């Protein structure tokens, strides 16, 4: 999944098992990319494109400054917010998201034993 309009970004990386298999099998084709001073996210993104793995754009997974967004106050439906470089900012984001953030995939499920629990899909 391409999680940013500028290419794959590292705070959250999601791949199908087929994409991971293609990456492992196609790794020799990506050797030329190791000469670049990129981080692992850009390297992986470029390697996946080199070996022909199909990209699916799902930008709603990540809210990140480097993707042209403002993650604070962490109240959207995203599953990852970035960056928060100190623990106070991180826990402020987490607390806000936990108290008022959207959870569009939340459902109530019964285990069959009469007790209810939240299940996130």
Distance between the termini: 17 Å
Helix-strand category: alpha+beta
> Mean pLDDT, as a whole number?
82
Question: Overall 3D geometry?
Answer: elongated
Strand order of the largest sheet: 1-2
So how many helices?
Answer: 3
Give the tally of β-strands.
4
Query: What summary fits the major beta sheet?
Result: 2 strands, parallel
What is the radius of gyration computed over CA atoms, rounded to a whole number of angstroms?
Answer: 18 Å
The run of helices and strands is HHEEHEE
Contiguous runs where pLDDT drops below 50 for at least 5 residues: 105-121
Fraction of residues in helix: 25-40%
Describe this structure in words.
The strands form two sheets. A two-stranded parallel ribbon has the order 1-2. A two-stranded antiparallel ribbon has the order 3-4. The C terminus is likely disordered. The chain has three helices and four strands, in the order ααββαββ. It is of the alpha+beta class and 121 residues long. β3 and β4 form a beta hairpin. The relative contact order is 0.15.
Structure described in brief:
The chain has 121 residues and is of the alpha+beta class. The protein is built from three helices and four strands, in the order ααββαββ.
Topology, please?
Blueprint: H1 17-26, H2 40-50, E1 62-64, E2 80-82, H3 87-100, E3 106-110, E4 116-120
Parallel strand pairs: 1-2
Antiparallel strand pairs: 3-4
Q: Characteristics of this structure?
A:
alpha+beta; two-stranded parallel sheet; two-stranded antiparallel sheet; 13% strand
